[in-house]
Prior knowledge:
Layout: H1 9-12, E1 13-22, E2 25-32, E3 38-45, H2 58-70, E4 79-84, E5 88-93, H3 101-106, H4 113-132, E6 135-136, E7 145-147, E8 157-159, E9 166-167, H5 186-189, H6 197-212, H7 222-231, H8 238-241, H9 246-253, H10 266-271, H11 280-288, H12 293-325, H13 331-343, H14 349-355
Antiparallel strand pairs: 1-2, 2-3, 3-5, 4-5, 6-9, 7-8
Helix pairs in contact: 4-6, 6-9, 6-12, 12-13
Domain Protein kinase: 13-275
InterPro entries: Kinase-like_dom_sf, Prot_kinase_dom, Protein_kinase_ATP_BS, Ser/Thr_kinase_AS
Binding site for ATP: 42
Amino acid sequence: MAVFKSDIVEDLYEIGEVLGSGHFGQVKKVRERATGTSWAGKFLKIRRKGGSLLGMDRTSVEREVEILQALKHPNIVMLKDVFESRSEMVLVLELISGGELFDFIAEKDNLLETEAIQFMKQILEGLRFMHSNSIAHFDLKPENIMLSEKVSPQLNVKLIDFGLAYRFHQGEEYKSTSGTPQYVAPEVISFEPLSTAADMWSIGVITYILLSGMSPFQGDTDEETLRNVVAVHYEFEDHYFKTTSSMAKDFIQKLLVKDSRERMTAEECLLHPWIKPITRKQVANRNRSSINMRNFKRFNAKRKWKMSYNMVSVCNRLVNMRLVCKHRSDTDLLQRQCESDVEDSESNPSSLLRRRLSSSS
């Protein structure tokens, strides 16, 4: 069960600047009064009863809180406190100031596979802990892989955003069509029962992109991307993988497998020779291999541009809806309609995947 505090958040924390905003809330920098420590406060509007569509569903927030409270690991964002009132929930989270891992890597002139492996290893350590607790993330992508800070001598990777995460219970079957097209596993698209193996498919995609600067299944449209995923249609083009080791390709191939039961687990990934070499030859092969930085920089720049474009597009869409609705007398109704148009969850699998399409697709 999720544990909430009934205290008033302002009594325990000083509320600071806004760090980010979403449809149903804001993230603000907060300072703990007792210790002076800075945290990130996620202030969420909660949907009231009576059929209102303005605000987040309380049950989904409670599920995310319950999951985060169970995940205490160095490579997973930490949840410190949760407060709730009649119309708002506040999640006090670890303040992560290092930005996205992919942005950090894109600033480099070159990167050896051995350096990239150190990042992948931390991601896998976090996943191994999650999966050992029967929890799947279901939304692994570059935007949700962060660095605690950039200046630390030991760079610490953090997995964030557990809004789609799910905790499995023995004997139950779970299906979902939520995710980002170029990162979701085939079983998500086919609306089949899911497991933690869906995360491992995403790790295969992320590794492919990290090494080559190319997305393995990206098509010209969302539908084409989804078809490529279901068909497991990808290849290692020499132009993009000429500096990639054979062990790295083998690592990816053992993850991008349609049968989820045949994919490597996080535990098995950590024992794979690419991550943990067992011979001098394997070590030498890694040391001679590097990621395609020129192409990776291009991919990351396009990804960031798409994020900005999508944000402007959503904002314009909401503004246009408000202009259409401006003559309505019921302001609350107008807000509900405009918000629900963006956050509608009652959709068929393909349209829901399109609706949740992230900026990096």
